[in-house]
């Protein structure tokens, strides 16, 4: 498949220096991935400038450069240059054109917010599957095409990768695609040129302020998905002030909005909730109608996720009855309040959850406490080279448990002990925690602390099967490690 420069830039202001009929065989934004007859995008980043890698891309066979300023290279006489105002936006525009706008061929549901995105995408997928639709999922756990899971490196891929993924989903016959849309992706216009059927907002809490710096900037990045650049039907949780502001903006713009939340003014809200150990029963009011929903997920925060997914499914045209029936057969989401299964019967319960923000940790602990009459211990840490301002707040949030073990998460290139010191700074004066930097030993210590009937929550990594220490990615799965430690603690002793 090839397209000419002129075709790819149709509808976008640019200056083509050279051959506008140059055939383009592929798109590259890393010079080491460029190949013969590729178009290379010189992306201006915060750390490096892609213009510096133009020669390397040409040496590897690229014949078209997309630049924000003309580059003068000795070996570029036969290379076409396309000068644009914003190379990132140009890359997204070209990628959508190159793959023939695949998102127009299915119903794309984009879900943004700090917490709840992954579970909500899985809920939407399950509901759509139950309605007989073929589905795709894009997000943190991985990408799924018609039920087949693939590993992913980013919550929301870079635009060429995203449009290629959309094209694969289109070619596989997907009717609905549920996608997590991160604030980074919106700010970096990775989704530019995509066509959404529904966009949904879950919540906004402390995270990513190392990138966005202020809550206002963080919110405005999320709000882009609800702007005129992304027309769609909307689903907005109005339990928080940020959601209510988003609802106000969308209402003023004349968008079709379904509101959700525990707030009784929301169009979808719970009238009564019964939390059980393995399921939740919710009497929902849905646009003035009462409907009972039973599903095998636990916790108050999953009520929020279910309401958001319910709204998305309604916006896709499914009936409330069909949605309720589908939710009854929902499978657990990997690493989201997932109970650890061990080869022995243990007198304690161990759960793994992805909670890595103060709000998510608070909600996860509260959910475990609601399920458990006895004590709760939480094992947690914070990632390195990420928002450091949330670390003491995470420490404070963890004190809601009866006991806490502070450990390493993914320290990356930071000193694990320095990260832990930041966390412990928020736990000043408390005596219901201790520090164990080694994550396996921390999990073992929590299990050893627990008495019959107690519960242990291992937070922060969820589905991840690795730990990043320095520049190394080590094999480490909280679920597997916890199962091993349960077996070590409660396995049958050999008889003499």
From TrEMBL:
Meso-2,6-diaminopimelate binds at residues 386, 409-412, 460, 464. It is an enzyme of class 6 (ligase). GO terms for biological process: cell division; cell wall organization; peptidoglycan biosynthetic process; regulation of cell shape. Pfam families: Mur_ligase (PF01225), Mur_ligase_C (PF02875), Mur_ligase_M (PF08245). It comes from the Bacteria. UDP-N-acetyl-alpha-D-muramoyl-L-alanyl-D-glutamate binds at residues 31, 155-156, 182, 190. One of its GO terms (cellular component) is cytoplasm. GO terms for molecular function: ATP binding; magnesium ion binding; UDP-N-acetylmuramoylalanyl-D-glutamate-2,6-diaminopimelate ligase activity. Keywords: ATP-binding, Cell cycle, Cell division, Cell shape, Cell wall biogenesis/degradation, Cytoplasm, Ligase, Magnesium, Nucleotide-binding, Peptidoglycan synthesis. Residues 35-99 form the Mur ligase N-terminal catalytic domain. It is found in: Cytoplasm. A motif (Meso-diaminopimelate recognition motif) lies at residues 409-412. The modification N6-carboxylysine is found at residue 222. InterPro entries: Mur-like_cat_sf, Mur_ligase_C, Mur_ligase_C_dom_sf, Mur_ligase_cen, Mur_ligase_N, MurE/MurF_N, UDP-N-AcMur-Glu-dNH2Pim_ligase. It catalyses: UDP-N-acetyl-alpha-D-muramoyl-L-alanyl-D-glutamate + meso-2,6-diaminopimelate + ATP = UDP-N-acetyl-alpha-D-muramoyl-L-alanyl-gamma-D-glutamyl-meso-2,6-diaminopimelate + ADP + phosphate + H(+). Pathway: Cell wall biogenesis; peptidoglycan biosynthesis. The keyword Cytoplasm applies. Residues 335-462 form the Mur ligase C-terminal domain. ATP binds at residues 113-119. Its EC number is 6.3.2.13. Belongs to the MurCDEF family. MurE subfamily. Catalyzes the addition of meso-diaminopimelic acid to the nucleotide precursor UDP-N-acetylmuramoyl-L-alanyl-D-glutamate (UMAG) in the biosynthesis of bacterial cell-wall peptidoglycan. This is UDP-N-acetylmuramoyl-L-alanyl-D-glutamate--2,6-diaminopimelate ligase. It comes from Adlercreutzia mucosicola.
């Amino acid at each position: 498949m090839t397209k000419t420069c002129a075709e790819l830039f149709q509808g976008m202001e640019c200056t083509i220096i050279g051959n506008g009929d140059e055939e383009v065989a592929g798109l590259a934004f890393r010079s080491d991935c460029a190949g013969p007859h590729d178009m290379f995008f010189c992306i201006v980043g915060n750390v490096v400038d892609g213009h510096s890698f133009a020669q390397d891309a040409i040496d590897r066979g690229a014949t078209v450069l997309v630049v924000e300023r003309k580059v003068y290279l000795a070996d570029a006489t036969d290379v076409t240059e396309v000068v644009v105002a914003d190379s990132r936006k140009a890359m997204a525009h070209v990628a959508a054109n190159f793959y023939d706008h695949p998102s127009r061929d299915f119903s794309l549901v984009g879900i943004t917010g700090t917490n709840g995105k992954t579970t909500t995408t899985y809920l939407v997928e399950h509901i759509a599957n139950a309605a007989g639709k073929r589905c795709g999922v894009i997000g943190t756990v991985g990408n799924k095409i018609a039920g087949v899971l693939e590993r992913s490196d980013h919550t929301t891929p870079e635009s060429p990768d995203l449009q290629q993924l959309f094209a694969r989903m289109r070619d596989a016959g997907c009717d609905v695609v549920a996608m997590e849309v991160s604030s980074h992706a919106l700010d970096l216009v990775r989704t530019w040129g995509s066509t959404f059927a529904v966009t949904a907002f879950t919540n906004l809490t402390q995270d990513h302020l190392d990138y966005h710096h202020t809550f206002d900037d963080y919110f405005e990045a999320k709000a882009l998905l609800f702007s005129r650049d992304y027309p769609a039907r909307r689903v907005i949780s109005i339990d928080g002030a940020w959601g209510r502001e988003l609802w106000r903006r969308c209402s003023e713009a004349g968008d079709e909005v379904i509101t959700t939340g525990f707030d009784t003014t929301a169009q979808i809200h719970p009238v009564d909730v019964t939390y059980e150990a393995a399921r939740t029963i919710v009497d929902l009011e849905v646009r003035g109608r009462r409907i009972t929903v039973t599903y095998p997920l636990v916790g108050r925060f999953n009520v929020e996720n279910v309401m958001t997914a319910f709204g998305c499914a309604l916006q896709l045209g499914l009936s409330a009855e069909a949605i309720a029936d589908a939710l009854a057969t929902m499978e657990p989401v990997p690493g989201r309040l997932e109970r650890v299964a061990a080869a022995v019967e243990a007198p304690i319960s161990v759960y793994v959850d992805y909670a890595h923000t103060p709000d998510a940790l608070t909600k996860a602990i509260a959910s475990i406490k609601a399920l458990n009459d006895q004590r709760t211990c939480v094992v947690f840490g914070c990632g390195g080279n990420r928002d450091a301002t949330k670390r003491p707040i995470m420490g404070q949030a963890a004190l809601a448990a009866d006991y806490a073990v502070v450990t390493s998460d993914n320290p990356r290139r930071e000193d694990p002990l320095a990260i832990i010191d930041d966390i412990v700074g928020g736990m000043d004066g408390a005596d219901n925690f201790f520090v164990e930097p080694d994550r396996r030993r921390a999990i073992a210590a929590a299990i050893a602390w627990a008495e019959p009937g107690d519960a242990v929550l291992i937070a922060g990594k969820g589905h991840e099967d690795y730990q990043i220490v320095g520049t190394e990615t080590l094999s480490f799965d909280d679920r597997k490690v916890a199962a091993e430690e349960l077996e070590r603690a409660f396995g049958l002793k050999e008889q003499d």
